[in-house]
Design goal:
- This protein has helices at about 1-10, 180-185, 210, 230-235, 310-315, 320-325, 335-340, 340-350, 365-370, 430-440, 445-450, and strands at about 50-55, 65-75, 90-95, 105-115, 140-150, 155-165, 185-190, 195-200, 245-255, 270-285, 295-305, 395.
- With about 500 residues, it is of the alpha+beta class.
- It has one domain.
- The strands form two sheets. Strands 3, 4, 5, 6, 10, 11 and 12 form a seven-stranded antiparallel β-sheet that branches. A five-stranded antiparallel β-sheet has the order 1-2-9-8-7, with no helix packed on it.
- β10 and β11 (about 295-305) form a beta hairpin.
- The chain is globular.
- It starts with a helix and ends in a 50-residue tail after the last helix.
- Mean pLDDT is about 90; it is low at about 1-35.
Length: about 500
């Protein structure tokens, strides 16, 4: 309520200028990047911070599902001398519920180990590197992959493979053919899956700079309660994540390895999967006088992610770290925040003159989309997993891809593309605009027609003006673009050279 009261006072005090009823797509406040630094405690623990989760039936390999779990937000490519790495003391996990009870039936767990090749140098790389295990790569990481299966209340764990993490893309001297180095880190697993773990370009795109300036969206600067002149402040969205890297765990799994009946996409009787990613640490961490850290005790979940932007715009500040520690099957306790979202009240307080009024309570549409999934009115199975509320990214593997990697409709189901968010999440899905429009009840003509929803135009035009990633995605696994080169980085005003990936 605090934000709504603040903006209400601002409007009452005359800070807001007149908003014309004809102003299309007025700015609406949004969250930070999909799940980058979304809660007070996890913002201080980047190695364990889930940033994004994607899941989609793979174009070109349609018998598989690709799941992308990203960690470590806003990594600067030129972050030497100690470049970012996975945490040796963190459990990274991808969970799949295939029977609708919101408990994972399958978990892929990765644990990492760092290997210093030469402790007597300060250098991360001591000469040109040609592979993830090149002796010139001084701070190497390897990892173990376990597949944990639950059946009849019992858990069975087996190791299905080991892999190596490629270095950061330092520059043309240190990593002269970085795509080839990274490709050597693609690893087959014993269950028929393929995995990659390492640095990639951050696939998320959003105008962070404008959004955190009191909820502004650059294309609608003049419609904001505190208007800005586009001639002075610009009117085109700016991707605030452009040029930053993240650390990804990307796994491509045969569909029959994930469904409850062991069948593929065309024959399974249970095609909807519920997916979330998490990171856990041991409960006790001891700083020792020799400069080392020792952890012990039970493992505690410190970060999780299913649907994008939930912990940012749905969960209040005082509960964000608590939400991160809870399992999705316990999410009924948060349902009130989905159905009476603060963001809807803020939209009305700021933009009541430009948008149609947004319902502030009774928002069962949001809890259905995000907590249970839904089916189409004609009975077609879509994303419904059952009545237990749980924040899961739901993917119907029976729905085939509609476009190659990166070419799907960015607005997904809002524009009738049933293979897009909230049916899983593709790299190209513009979840910022989709979820802003959902909260503003601007579902648009396609969904209005399918579900008989009222037309609340122009609420279906809200957006931040950033509609795609700054660089193209790859057409081959692991799909996210190559990690940005530190030598090329323009994040602080440098001039780009021809030596990038």
């Amino acid at each position: 309520m605090r934000s709504a009261r603040f903006f209400g006072r601002a409007v009452a005090a005359g800070l807001a200028m007149a908003l014309t009823a004809g102003a299309l797509g007025a700015a609406t406040p949004a969250a930070r990047a999909s799940s980058h630094r979304e809660a007070p405690l996890i913002s201080r623990d980047p190695q364990a911070d889930n940033t994004d989760l994607y899941a989609f039936r793979t174009p070109g390999a349609e018998h598989t599902v690709t799941i992308v779990a990203n960690y470590i937000p806003l990594v600067e490519p030129n972050g030497g001398p100690n470049f970012t790495s996975f945490g040796d003391d963190v459990r990274y996990e991808i969970h799949i519920d295939n029977d609708g009870d919101a408990d994972p039936n399958i978990t892929y767990r990765l644990t990492f180990k760092t290997h210093i090749q030469n402790p007597d140098t300060f250098l991360y790389i001591t000469g040109p590197v040609t592979s993830p295990t090149d002796p010139n790569f001084n701070l190497q990481q390897s990892y173990k992959v376990e597949r944990i299966e639950r059946s009849h209340g019992r858990y069975r764990s087996r190791t299905i493979g080991y892999g190596n993490v490629p270095p950061a893309n330092v520059g043309p001297r240190s990593t002269p053919n970085y795509p080839a180095i990274a490709a050597q880190a693609i690893t087959p697993l014993a269950d028929g899956s393929t995995i990659f773990a390492g640095p990639r370009d951050d696939a998320f795109f959003v105008d962070l700079g404008a959004i955190f300036d009191l909820g502004g969206l650059r294309p609608f600067n003049q419609a904001h309660a505190i208007p800005l002149d586009p001639a002075q402040f610009g009117g085109a969205g700016i991707d605030g994540v452009s040029g930053y890297d993240t650390h990804t765990i990307t796994i491509q799994v045969p569909i029959e390895q994930l469904t409850s009946d062991g069948q593929g996409a065309d024959s399974t009787s249970a095609p909807v999967l519920g997916i979330y990613a998490s990171a856990s640490r041991q409960a006790t961490r001891v700083l020792r006088s020799n400069g080392r850290v020792r952890s012990h005790g039970p493992w505690v979940q410190v970060s999780r992610l299913g649907n994008p932007l939930v912990n940012e715009v749905i969960i209040p500040l005082g509960l964000k770290d608590y939400w991160n520690a809870q399992e999705p099957r316990k999410d009924r306790q948060f349902q009130q925040y989905y159905e009476s979202p603060e963001l809807a009240r803020i939209i009305n307080a700021l933009y009541g003159g430009a948008l149609q009024p947004v319902d502030e309570t009774g928002r069962t549409d949001l809890s259905a989309i995000l907590l249970t999934g839904l089916d189409l009115p004609d009975g077609t199975k879509y994303t419904f997993t059952g009545s237990r509320p749980a924040d899961l990214l739901r993917l119907n593997v029976g729905i085939a891809p509609t476009a190659p990697i990166g070419a799907g409709d960015r607005l997904g189901v809002l524009n009738g593309d049933l293979a897009g968010f909230p049916n899983g999440r593709r790299l190209e899905d513009d979840v910022t605009d989709i979820e802003l429009r959902a909260v503003a009840q601007g579902y648009g003509p396609v969904l209005n027609s399918i579900f008989g929803l009222p037309d609340k135009s122009p609420n279906n035009l809200v957006g931040d003006g950033v509609d795609a990633n700054d660089v193209p995605f790859l057409t081959a696994f692991p799909y996210q673009a190559t990690a940005n080169a530190g030598y090329d980085s323009t994040l602080h005003g440098g001039q780009r050279t021809p030596f990038g990936p």
